Amino acid sequence: MDGNRPEYPRPRLRRRDWVSLNGEWEFGAGEKQVFDRRILVPFCPESRLSGIGELPGDTVWYRTRFNAPAGERMVLHFGAVDYRATVWVNDVEVARHEGGHTPFSADVTSTLRGRDNVLVVRADDPLTDKTTPRGKQFWGPKPEGIFYTPTTGIWQTVWLEPLPTRHLRGLRLTPDFNGGAVDFEVQAEGVVRLVVTLEGEVVGRWEGKAGRGRIALLAIAPWHPDSPALYEVDAMLLDAEGNIADRVFSYFGLRSVAARDGQVWLNGKPIVQRLVLDQGYFPDGLLTAPSDHAMRGDIEVAKALGFNGARKHQKVEDPRWLYWADRLGFLVWDEMPSTQEFSDEAARRLELEWAEVVRRDRDHPCVVAWAPANESFGLEHIAPEVRSKFVARMYKVTHELDPTRPVSSNDGWEHALTDLCTLHDYTSPEEVARRYRSLESILDGKASGHRPYDPGYGYRGEPVLVTEFGGVKMSGSGGWGYAQVADVDHFLQVYRGLIEGLMDPGPVEGFCYTQLTDVEQEQNGLLTYDRQAKLEPALVKPITQTEKRR
């Protein structure tokens, strides 16, 4: 996010020409449209990097001016605006969007003039409305417990995309690992040409009328955390003379993922997922990373600690982070931020926004699991049959949008239909060693004090993964954790006991340790909030990578 030109904000569908609108904007708060402050976009007003650093209230306003770049059509893009956005260009309303974590755009061609265009954004994010999907954003004036400073308004890149009148509107790429091919769908009118390369060599091409098709690959290089090979795609829309009228660049990873026979399979082979819980908060930008380098850095340090992936907890991450996970070879569990109360309106909001999340992220090879709900957040105080009906509905919606990945229907406990039996258990190494030796002791509901499955549902042979545990805090660091140790040696002893207890013979096929970094008052990370290591990664890595014993 450094400067006015960040890295391309939509890495899976890139064009050469685009204009970032990030930078200093006018800003105001309240129902009345008043601009009496300045803010640095894309940072939310609660963050220090915004230049404001305080809770702004339920309604905020933004205004900036820009000159239009050359182009037959002009599309205005927003990466994310929390929660409800209304957008005007030159006093003409061009867009409305509900959902604080997903992108939206508007064709603003007809509203533009050559110079001095005025862009105004209103964002409504009622702090105390617990039926909005908010994840870990606290609904009061001061964060407490497991909840943190909220985010209001714009928090991802705003940008302009000039387009020709006839252009490529979309490109889906679905790799077929077993068939050694990639299926595609191009949204456009006319003839398109697709060229696929691997390490600079052409390994597939296709030309014909836009729509659906399939390209057989001449070289096979599976995507895996240990070898994250990516195929590059050059997609061209041709005019009547065969010249290039529009062009986008993309990529895909050739891999398969499945959950069956009590294990998770990547590219047809069992894999033990060694994940770390990553909440994606930063001390200066909150939900917005201060730079692309910071996003990449979090993945690199997680890999240095021995983890092969992350469960992105209660946050829909910036596509740039997913891009680095694709490039660096890092497994990702994509999770929907929860509401804190349930109602028909909350259900509507969750389902609509989750569908946008899945559509946005389903072509990233790094994403290997979906988690539409977590620990019954917002679902605790309703009848079990109502909860399980909603959870099963989200499971089915997810599979309708993407049948290629497993779904953890309610990560932690009280599952309905699910492909993964995921459990959260903040207990001692001694109890872990005892509890996870058999399915019977796991499914008795004592691990977390909650039933693994809601009434009417039960275990059907899903892989068992403990997707929250640990949360160990170093003594003297302030804040809180789920457990406390005196020093580095004590931490390593506890950490080794937890990991070995999960990897000893038994049904557990993977884990997710809490957590990568401290977040505000929750100080149980392997790193501090400002990304300083609390202990040498080389000490942690061999423990994290303890072999599964069978």
Summarize, please.
The protein has 550 residues and is α+β, with helices and mostly antiparallel strands. Helix 1 crosses helix 2 (319-328) and helix 7 (488-503) packs parallel to helix 8 (537-544).
Textual characterization of the structure:
Helix 1 (292-304) crosses helix 2 and helix 5 runs parallel beside helix 7. The chain has eight helices and 33 strands. The chain is globular, with a radius of gyration of 24 Å. 46% of the residues are buried. The strands form nine sheets. The protein has a seven-stranded parallel sheet, covered by helices on one side. It has a six-stranded antiparallel sheet with strand order 3-2-4-10-7-8, with no helix packed on it. A four-stranded antiparallel sheet has the order 1-12-5-9, with no helix packed on it. It is of the alpha+beta class and 550 residues long. The protein starts with 18 loop residues before the first strand and ends in a 6-residue tail after the last helix.
Q: What is the distance, rounded to the nearest whole angstrom, between the alpha carbons of the first and last residues?
A: 46 Å
Radius of gyration: 24 Å
The biggest beta sheet, please? 7 strands, parallel
Structural class: alpha+beta
**Number of DSSP helical runs:** 8
Itemize the secondary structure elements and their pairings.
Layout: E1 19-20, E2 23-29, E3 37-41, E4 59-66, E5 73-78, E6 81-82, E7 84-89, E8 92-98, E9 104-107, E10 117-124, E11 153-154, E12 158-163, E13 170-176, E14 181-187, E15 191-198, E16 201-209, E17 212-216, E18 223-224, E19 227-228, E20 231-238, E21 244-252, E22 257-260, E23 263-266, E24 269-270, E25 273-278, H1 292-304, E26 309-312, H2 319-328, E27 331-335, H3 344-361, E28 367-371, H4 384-401, E29 421-424, H5 429-435, H6 439-442, E30 464-468, E31 472-474, E32 483-485, H7 488-503, E33 508-513, H8 537-544
Parallel strand pairs: 25-26, 25-33, 26-27, 27-28, 29-30, 30-33, 31-32
Antiparallel strand pairs: 1-12, 2-3, 2-4, 4-10, 5-9, 5-12, 6-11, 7-8, 7-10, 13-14, 14-17, 15-16, 15-20, 18-19, 20-21, 22-23, 23-24
